[in-house]
Design goal:
The chain has one domain (about 25-165): 3-Layer(aba) Sandwich (Rossmann fold), CATH 3.40.50.620. The chain contains six helices and five strands. It is α/β, with parallel strands linked by helices and about 170 residues long. Helix 5 (about 120-135) links the parallel strand 4 (about 115) and strand 5. It has a five-stranded parallel sheet with strand order 3-2-1-4-5, sandwiched between helices.
């Protein structure tokens, strides 16, 4: 167990967390274990967490070829699911619809952490480049590892939608 894993295994008061503000974004369709690990990691590391949820309108622009995009849950349901899950943590949490692909991450001077999946790591690097251009400090990037289902495949919302569509 590394130091971060030891840290994450404990409850710390909000003012003792190593980061001021975490930012993250995603679709968060069918809130699953990988989403929960991402959200939990941010809440355990940061005093404040901003979670941007890709809305239906933005999603149509960003993901026109996403499989079964017609089955993505409404934005209001996805936001409510994230809010409900985050309620258990000792962090100030803001969950809002993203109106652009980057949200506040490139411009928020208080943000100092971004939590991403292996799949979205390149987006974090792009955000840090945008922050550099604005003369803001880069965000510390914390990448969670893949979370696997019972079949040994990475859990994904796309796979869950495919299963639903086949029923």
């Amino acid at each position: 167990m590394n130091d971060l894993q030891k840290y994450l295994s404990k409850e710390f008061p909000r003012d003792q967390k190593p980061f001021r503000k975490a930012v993250m974004g995603g679709t968060f369709d069918r809130l699953h274990d990988a989403h929960k690990r991402l959200l939990e990691t941010a809440a355990l590391l940061a005093q404040e967490v901003f979670v941007g949820v890709v809305g239906n309108r933005l999603g149509k622009k960003l993901f026109p070829n996403k499989k079964h995009h017609d089955l993505i849950q409404p934005t209001s349901v996805r936001i409510a699911n994230v809010q409900e899950f985050m309620h258990q943590f000792n962090s100030v949490v803001t969950v809002a619809e993203l109106l652009d692909p980057w949200g506040p991450a490139p411009t928020d001077p208080e943000a100092d952490l971004i939590v991403v999946s292996e799949e979205t790591y390149p987006n974090a690097e792009k955000i840090n480049q945008m922050r550099k251009e604005r003369e803001l400090k880069p965000l510390h990037i914390y990448t969670i590892e893949w979370v696997f289902d019972a079949d040994g495949s990475p859990i994904s919302s796309t796979k869950l939608r495919e299963q639903e569509a086949s029923k």
